[in-house]
User: Fold these one by one.
Assistant:
Number 1:
Amino acid sequence: MKEQITGGLFKRMILHGAAAITAQKQAINDLNVFPVPDGDTGTNMSMTIGAAVTELKKTEPATLDKAVSITASALLRGARGNSGVILSLLFRGLSKGLKGLETAGAAEFAAAMQEGVSSAYKAVMKPAEGTVLTVSRLAAMRAAERAAEETDFEKVLEAAIQEGYEALAQTTDMNPVLKKAGVVDAGGKGYLLILEGMLAELRGEPMPEAVEEAPQKAKADFDVFSTEEITFAFDTVFIVRKNDPNVDLDPFRAYLNSIGDSLVIGEDDEAFKVHVHTNIPGSALTEGQKYGTLELAKIENMRTQYEDVAAGKKAQSVDDLEMEEAEASETPEGVHVVAPPEKKYGFLSVCAGDGLAAVFQDLGVDGVVSGGQTMNPSTESILEGVDQIPAETVFILPNNGNIIMAAQQCAALTEKNVVVIPSKTVPQGITAMMNVDFEAPDAETLANAMTDSLSGVTTAQITYAARDSDFDGFDIKEGDYLALEEGKLFGTEKSLQNLLKKLAENAKKRDASFISLYFGEDVTEEEAQAAGKLFEDACPGAEIMILSGGQPVYYYIISME
C-alpha cells in the first residue's frame, strides 16, 4: 500500500504510462471513423508523452514538484495533434495542482487531476462531451470521491480508471459521429492506457515491451475543435507582478473573455502574462492592476499599425515569463534564436511533400514545417518555424484539422503575434495564400480575407482502405480505393480510374471552373496526366492544373473552385 508518491516514483509512473500507450498505439490509431491509413491518435499521444520521457530520463527529480513541472513543460512543447494538446493540458493542470510539494498523498493527487481537467476545459474553445474531456473529468471526480474515503494511492487510481472506462463506453451514445459508427473515443482510450501504466508502476508490475499490437477493428476518432476569429482591434500583451502568489485569476479571465477574444494567460507564482485581442485595452490593463503591479505592456492597433513598430519594440516589451524561458532552456534543442522583425507579415505552412512545399513557397510562404497526414508536427516544431520568420505577425496555415490546436498553443510561447488561419486541407491553405494582400493595412483585415477564402474551395482526397469496414452504407474491403470530399467519405472502388471518373463527374455537377490535381509520391507523371484528362473531358470549360505534390498516403489531393 502506497500513501505518498515522490518525484522519483512519479517519473517512473510516467515512463510506465508512456510504455503502455506506445505498446498499443496502433490499436489507438485504428480507432478511426474512416478506414483510411492516417488514423494517428495513438501516435500523437505516444509521441507527446514520449517528449516527457526524454526530459525525465535526463534527471532524477528530487521532489514531486520538479517531476511534474518537467513533465508538463515537455508535454506542452511536444504536443502533437488535438489529442496531444489535450493530454498536455491535463498534465499542465496536474503540475499546477501539485506545485511546491515534495510528495503528495492520494487526496492531493486527486485534486490535482481535477485541476488538470479544469485547465483542459478552459483551453478548448467549445468543449464537446463524448471525448477525452468527458473521460478525464469523470475519472478525476471518482478519484476525489475515493480519496475522501481512504489513503491507498493504488485503490484511488484504480477507482478513477474504472470510472473512466465506464465513461468511455458512454462516449458512443454521447457523440453522433461515434454513435453512427458504434465506437468509443480514441483520445479517451489513450488517456486511460496512460493511467493504467501509471497504476501498474505503483503495483510494481513490469513495464511492457515496446512492441505494438496488431490492428484491431475500426472504432473512432474525430475532430471536435473549432478555431477562433480575430474580431477585436487591439493586440494587447502585458505582464503583471502578483500581489498574492495564490491569487485566483478566474474572475479576471472571465472579464477578459467578455471584452475580447484570443485570450491566453500564462502564470507562475510571481507573475502572469496576458495576451488578448480587445477594443478597450485600457480597461484590460486597469482590471489587471487589481491583481498586482503592471510591469510591461504592448498594445498594437491591428487596423492602423505604424510601419516603425518593428524597430525592436516588441522584443523589449513582451518578454516571456521566467517560467516560459526556463521551459525553453530545458528542451533538447536548447534555446532557439528568435528572428527580429524586418517586416509586418510572415507566413508559415504545414505540409508533407516537396512539391507542395514548393507551391507554398512560390505563393510567398516564408517557412514550411514538414507534417500533415500520418505525422502531425509538435507545437515545438511549429514554434521554431514561427520564431525563424523575421516578421511582427506570423500567419500559420496548419492545412489539417488535427494540427490547428497545436498551432494555437504557439501564441503563448513566443513574443511574436501569431494568427492561425483555420485551413483544414492543403488546397484551403493554397487558396488562403492566393488571397493574401501583402500590403494589407492590418493583421485583422488580412486574417479575415484569408479565412473567408477557405469556403470557396472544395477538397477531395484519394487514398486506400487500411482495413475492412462497413461505414455509412459502404462495404469497404482492405486495399479498396477511397475518396474523401471535405473530410467525408465520397465513394469507394476497386479501380482508381473509376473513382477518378466519379470525382470528375462531381466536379462537373459543382460547375468547377478551376481544378488542381496534386499527385502523390506513389503516382507517376503519366498516371497523373491521364487523371487530368478525365477532368478535362468532364469539365471542358474548366482550367485544369496537374502538379507533383509528392505527398505520402494520398494518391491525389484535388482542389475544386
Number 2:
Amino acid sequence: MEENTSRNFLEEIIEQGLAEGTYKSILTRFPPEPNGYLHIGHCKSICLNFGLAKKYGGKTNLRFDDTNPVKEDTEYVDSIQQDIRWLGFEWASVHYASDYFDQLYEWAVVLIKKGLAYVDDQTQEEIRLGRGTVTEPGKNSPYRDRSVEENLDLFERMKNGEFADGEKVLRAKIDMAHPNMQFRDPIMYRILHADHHRTGSKWCIYPMYDYAHGQSDSIENITHSICTLEFDIHRPLYDWFIEQLGIWPSHQYEFARLNINYTVMSKRKLLQLVKENYVSGWDDPRMPTICGFRRRGYTPESLRNFCEDIGVAKRDNIIDYVRLENSLRDHLNKVAQRRMAVLNPVKLVIDNYPEGQEEMLTAVNNPECEADGTRQVPFSRELYIEREDFMEEAPKKFFRLSIGKEVRLRYAYFVTAQSVEKDAEGNITCIHCTYDPATRGGDAPDGRKVKGTLHWVSAKHAVDAEVRLFDRLFATEAPDVAPEGKTFLDNLNPDSLKVLHNCKLEPALAEAKMVVNEKGIEEPQRFQFERMGYFCTDRDMNDGHLVFNRSCSLKDTWAKING
C-alpha cells in the first residue's frame, strides 16, 4: 500500500520553513485562558499544536493567557493541565502571560516613548463610538496628542493604582481611519483593581489579548502561533507590535475552528448552563467539555482520532455530531469488553428447565480481541430479558420473542414462549417458555435456524444498578439560533437524560469500578452492554450502588428519531 503523502496547509508551511532553514526546529504553544474548562473545540487545537510539534520533532509549550483576573481561577488551571495529559500530550514547559507582566509593561513604555501609545481618559462607550464603522473612519481621541512625558507619567500612575477601574486606558497610536478596525488605536492596557490568581495585588493594570499574545509568543520564540480563523483579522496587529518593538518575529497562522451541530461551545454559555443548574457541573456527561466526555466514557484515542478525521481546513464548516460518536464506537468496539445487562427487565421462566439447577456458560469478552479471553456466566431457570424483546402478538418482522415463537438466548439455548402472567392493570409480569436442551451454546444440532438472539441475566445472580441514558443536550442542530424572545436555553433537549433504577446486570459487572490511569487521572471502566450500547462506570457509584452512564448507542438512532 502506498503511503498517504497528503498534507494539510500547516504541514506544508512547516516543511517549507524547515527546508529553507527559516528555523531549525519548531515550537508551538497551546494558550488557553483559565476562565473555564476545556471543550471539544480546544481538543482540536491541542491535537493540532502538540501533534504538529511531535510530527516534526519539535516541542509545545502550555501557556495560560491569564490577563483577566476577574474570570480566572486556579481550578481552571488544574483542570486544563489534567485534560491535556489525559488526552495523551506532555508540554515542554508551562508558562503564564502573567510571567511576562514586567516585560510587557516595559515594552509599553518603549511604545509610549516612540510616540506609538497614549493614555486615553474616554469612557469605554466613547471609545467604542469613536472607532467608527467598516464604512466610516473613526475619530481621534481628544487625548491622542498628549506629550510623551505626560503619557509616561499617567501610565506609571495607572500602574501605581491612582485611578479607578475604567478611568483611563493605554491605547496604541496607529490610524483611526485604517480599513482594518483592529488598527484604530486598540486598547493595550485597562485598569482592574482585582487580585490575580498568581500575582495577587501586585498589578492593577492588565494587558489586553492583542497586546500580550504576540509578545508572549516572541519571548518564548514560538515559531508557529496557531489560532482559529476569527483571529485572522488580528494578525496584522500581532505583526505590528512585534515590528515596532523589534523583537523576535513569531508568526501567527489560522485554521478553521471546530463547530459541531447540536452543541454550543461558548465558554460564557457553558458557564451559564453550570451556574443555573441546567447540568450537574462542568463534567456533566452531556457537556461538550473534555472532562464531560471523559465522564461519559469517551477515550483519549477516540477524541484524537476524531480530530484527525475532520482534518485541518482554512474555511469554517459544521461537523455532524455523529462523526464524533462514530469515532467512539470504532475505538470501543476494539477495546471494550462485552457484558450482558437488562435495562428494562421482565422475568422469563423456563418451565421445563430443572428447578434448582444452575450451570455456567462460556461467554466471549471481546470478539475483536482474542487476548481478552472468556468468562463464565451463570444460567438458571429464572431469567430477566428486556421487556421490549417480547410481544404477545407480534407483527411479521418482529424477530424477537412472542407466543409460539422460538429465539436464541445468547450463549445459552433456544427457547419458545408459551404463556404470560399479568398484573391487575394488564402489565406482563412473567413470561413462561420452554427450552431445547440440545441447543446448548446457541446452535441446534438439527440445523434449524432462528432469527432472533436475546441477551439475558440470571435472576438469582443478577446485580442491581442505576443506569443513566444520556443523549444530546440540545434538540436542534443549531442551538445558538433561537426565535425572537428566545435563547439557546429554549433549545435544550428535555430527554437528554433518563435515569433507570431497576436494571439487572450479570454478576461480573459487580466488580466494575472507577480506575486511576498511569497518569494518576481517574477515569471510568468502559463496556459494551450487548445489544444495548456502550456504557461506563460513573464516579457517583459506591460499594453498595452501581452506576453506569451510556456513552453512546451501538449505532446512530438520532437520525431516525428526528428524521
Number 3:
Amino acid sequence: MIGENNAVVLLHETLNKIIASEFENIPSDFGADFEHPKHENQGDISTNAAMRLAKILKTNPKIIAEKIIAALNSNDTLKNSGYIEKIELANPGFINIFLAGKFFAGAVNDVLNQNNNYGALNLGNNKKVQVEFVSANPTGPLHIGHGRGAAVGDVVARVLKFTGWDVQREYYINDAGLQMENLGRSTRARYFELLGHDFEIPENGYKGEYLKDIAQEIINKYGEKFLNVPENESVAFFRDYAGNKILDGIKKDLKEFRIEFDKYFVESYLHENNLINSAMKFLKENNYAYEADGALWFKSTDFDDDKDRVLIRANGVSTYFAADVAYHKNKFDRGFARVIDVWGADHHGYIARVKAGIKATGNDPEKFDVLLIQLVNLLRGGEAVNMSTRSGEFVELNEVVNEVGTDATRFFFLTRRSDSQLDFDLEIAKEQTSNNPVYYIQYAYARISGVLREFENRGKILPDNNFEIPAEIFNNKDARLLVELLTKYPDEIKNASENLAPHVLTGYLINLAGAFHAFYNTNVILNEPDEKISLGRLNIIRAVKIVIGSCLELLGVNAPERM
C-alpha cells in the first residue's frame, strides 16, 4: 500500500466507499489498497480491487473495474480535488490512475508539514520489543562480521522505534563457560611468556596479539605476583581481567560506531539468580525434559529435531543451550511482546532449537525472530584483501572504520540483505564520486543545503510549507519522478519495519539521491525568472532534504550541511 498523504487518504476513502455502495455481499473487512505500478505507462498508482472482488462476486474483473472507474470519474469530491488526470483499465482488471500536478504539489506540502515525522507509522502500538545484537563474547576485539551485525541490529531498532514500537536494545555477555575459561588460561600463558617463563596456550585458546598487551598491563600493575600462584587459582583473575578489558574495548568500538545499548545482560546473572535451574524445573514439570545417563535432556524430538539435546551434563554443568532457554524465558518474563535476535549465519541450525525452547517454556515462538548475518568479503579495487589483524583470526571492525569512516562502513554493511554475503570495496568507500553511494547521497543533502543558504543569503524568505506549488512544474518528468519517490517513503519504512530489512532504506536513498541530482540538472532553481516556479522548486528540494535527513538518521549516517 502506498503512503497515505492527504491526497491518498481521499482517494483511498473514496474508492472504498464506492465499492461498499456499488457492490452487494462484500465482506465488512474488505479494503482496497493502492500500489505503485512497476512501469511508467501503468499510471502513478494502481489498484487490483476489481480482481479481488471478482473472486468474491464470481464476475469478470473487467466489468467490475469499468463500474468502479465510472463511479470514480463521476465522483464530485474527486473531480473538485483536481488530483486525477485520467483513469485507465488494464488487463486483466487493474485500475491505473494517472495523477495531476496538484497531487504532487500536495505531496510536497505533506512532507514539509510533517517534517521529521513524515514516514513515521504506528505499527507497534507502543508494544515492547527487544532487539539483542552483537553479543560477542568478550574474548577478543570486534571483527567486521560483528560490525555488520551491529549495524543491522541498530538500524532495525531505529526503524522499529520510528514505527511505533517501544524498543530495548540488549547485549548478552557470555561471562561464563569454557570460552571464558580458555581466555583466562590464554592470558595467563602470555603473562608467563612476557616474563620469560615457559608457557603453553590451551589447544582451544586465543592466540591474538591483543592478549600480549593485556598481559603486559597486568605485569605493569602486579609484577611477578602470579608466577607462583597455582594455575587453578589464578585463571579466574586472568579471565576476569582480560574479559573486562576486552569488553571495555568492545564498548569503545561500538560507541565510535554509533551503537548504544539500553542493557548489558550477563550470563552469570542466570546462574547467580537460579534462573537456569528454575527454567529446567519448569521443563521437567511440563514433561519437556527428562533425566537419563545422569544428565538432563530436552525433548527436542517433540519439536521435529533429529535428536534430544543435553541441558545439564552428568557433571552438573549446564550447556549453552540450557542458558539460552533460561535467557529467552527471561526475555518474555520481562514483558516483551516480541523478541528479535541478530546472529551469525553459522547459527542457522540453532534457530529451531531455540524456538522449541521458547515454546516449551510457555511462550509463543512466533513472537521470536532471528536475523542472520552473512560474511563480509573485503575488497580493494575489486581484489580480495587480507588486512593486518591483531585478533589472530579476523579483520577488526576498528581497522575498517579507521580507514573509510563510520558513515561509509555502516552504509556499506547495510546495502544488501543481512543473510546475503556482502562485498565491501574499501577503495570505493573512500571515493568522492558517484560510484560511492554514501558520498552520492550526502552530496545531495549538502547540495540542497547550499542552495537554501544561497537563497537566504540573497535576502529572500523561503516560502511557507503550504505554498501552492504551480502544477506545471510537474510537467517535467524529473520533478514528477522525484516527488513520486517522496510519496514512496512511508512504504519503504513500512517494508523495512515489517520485514526487518534495513537494506530497503539504503536502496531507497540511492534512488532518491539519483532522482534529486537529475532534477537539479534539468530545473533552474535560484535563477528561475518566474518567482512562483522558483519558490515551488525550492519547496520540492526542502522536502527532499527532510526525507534524506530522516532516512540517514535511521541508518545512523551523518547528514552534512557542507561538503
Number 4:
Amino acid sequence: MNNRALISVYNKDGIIELATFLAGAGWEILSTGGTAKYLSDNKIPVIDVSAVTGFPECLDGRVKTLHPAVHAGILACRDEPAHMETLEKLKIETIDLVCVNLYPFFEKVREGLTEDATIEFIDIGGPAMLRSAAKNFNDVVVLTDPEDYAKVIAGLTAGKSPGNVPVELKKRLAGKVFNLTSAYDASVSRFLLETDSPEAEYPLYFPLSMKKGPSLRYGANSHQGAALYLDTSSGGAISGMEQLHGKEMGFNNIRDMDIAWKAACAFSGAGLEQYIPGVEKMASCVAVKHNTPCGIALGDTLLEAFEKTHACDPVSIFGGIIACTVPVDAATANKLKDIFLEIVIAPNFDESALDILKKKKDLRLIRAKKPPSDEREFFSIDGGLVVQDTDRKLLDKWDVVTRASPAPEDIPDLVFGMRAVSFVKSNAIMVIKDLAATGIGGGQVNRIWSTEQALERSAAVTGADNPARVLASDAFFPFPDGVEAAAVSGIKAIIQPGGSINDKLVIEACDRLGLAMVFTGTRHFRD
C-alpha cells in the first residue's frame, strides 16, 4: 500500500516543492479543485478526491472532502487491528499526510464584504480534515503552515514512511493545527455574534482571535520575554503602523505607542467642533512617558502643537514618545532631533524630516496608517481577562452648577481638557491654557496630590503673571480642598463629572471663591 498525502491549500506558497518531493518518494497525492489543477499544471500526478469518495464535489464546492473515505483514512489508528480491519472491509486506504490551509476568513472579514459574501469564506472541510489529522498525529503528519514544509521533508528524507518524521515534530504540528482552528473559529464566532446578535456583546465564551506580530526585544524589563499579538479580525491601529527607521520594539514601546496614538487622535471626529471651532483642521501632538501623557496640545501647525506639548514638561519627555496627527515637517524635525526620544509616530514624514531624524540611529520612526478603532479593552488578571468597552464618550451633559458661568473664551479649553485628561492615569488632573496642557497630575492615590502636582507644574510653565484659567478632573472632587488649591493658583473654571456625596460642599467652595464649575456626568478613570 502506497503512502498517501491529501493536499488542499488556498495559500500555495511552497506547495510545488513539497508535492514534488512526495511524488518523487512514491507517494500518491490526493487533491481537490483548484489545488488539483495547480499541481497538474505543474506536472505533478494527482488523484482527484472524488475518485476516492465516489462522490463529486457539489454545492459550489461547499462539499468536497466531507466523506468517510477521507476521514476514516485519516483517523484510523494504524496499531489498532479493529480499525485496520474496518478500513479493509470498507475498501478505504489510509491517508498519511494532510496538508491544508484555510480560506482567508481573517483577511476577508476585514474587507467589509456583504454578510453573505463573508460567510462563503468560512472554511468547513479544511478545519475538519486538519482536526482529524491532528487528533491522529501519531500516525499522520499534518501541515498547515508553509514554514513547516521543509522540516517535514527533512524528516521524510530518511525514508518514505511518515514514521520517519519525529513524533515530537508531529505533535507540535498537531498543536499548531488546534492553535489555528481555535483562532479561526473565534474570528467566525465574533463576526456572527457582532453581525446578528448585538445583545451577545459579552458572550459566555469570549472569542479572541490573535496572531503573533513582529518580534519584541523583551518585556517591561529585560529579563521578561514578550510577544505582540494582533487581532485577526480588525488588526487595529498598531497593525497599520510601519516602522521606517530605528531599533526593534519592546513591550513598553508598544504600550506607549498605543496610548500616544489614541490620545493624539482623540480630537478628530469626536464632535468637538461645536466647542472648539476649527478643531478638525488643527494639528494634535502628545508626548507620552510610562503609558501616560506628559504633554498634549492642539495647534494651527505641528510646530506650534509640539512646542506647547514640550513646554508642559520638558523633563519627563526625555526618553518618551511623540505622536502627532499631521506629517512631520523639517521645522518640527529640527526640534525633535534635539531631544532624546524613543519613538515618533505620524501619518507621514516629509523627506527632509526623514533626513534629519534618521541621523539618530536608534530613534524609531513610525508611519501610522489607521486611526484607533478598538471597541473594547482587555486587561489581564491572574487566570483571565477583564473586558470593557473603550471609553469614547466625552460628556453626558453640560451643567453649570455654580453662580458663575465659564467665560466664553474658556469653553474650548474646558472641553479640550476633559478629552485630554481622559488619557492620564487616575487620579487625573489637567491644567489647560490655549488648547494645551500646562500641568498634568496623575497616578496618585488621592485627588489633592494630583491637583497640587498639576497646579505646581502649570505655574512653572505659565508664570505668575499669566496663569492658566482652566482645570479638568477625570472624576469628581471628593472634598473642597482641590477647588481651594485651584483658586489660589488663579484657576477660574473647572470641569468635572460630579457625583460625589460632597458635591454641595464643592459647589459652595466654588461660589465662595468665585469659580465656575461644569458637571459633565461622565467619569474617565484610566488604569
